Amino acid sequence: MAILKLNIYKADNKNEIEKTYTSEGYDLMLGTLQDVIAIFDIDKINTGNEMELAMMAVRGFDQVAPILRDVFPDATPEELRRTKTKELVPLFVAIAREAVGTMKIARQGN
Question: According to the model, what pLDDT value does residue 30 have?
Fold first, then answer.
């Protein structure tokens, strides 16, 4: 499982990181898993290019903050507003890939 990182930038200096949250060994809640599946075309998670995946994330924008709060529970709504979008795309790709991996494990267990 990859270590996920969420940078929070200073309100008065968008180039300076104020705080970084990390998440390792996170366990996706069922609702988060459903949200990720609703956003991403599961077949393209491993084969889609970054731009395709970024567009999927944009279409699911309303679900972005709740997913981030599930993975990084200590991050406040105000801090989430101070994250860079370009850093969120690879983060969401990693979360989506983890969700797909979780689904595969669950299927094998049945």
Answer: 78
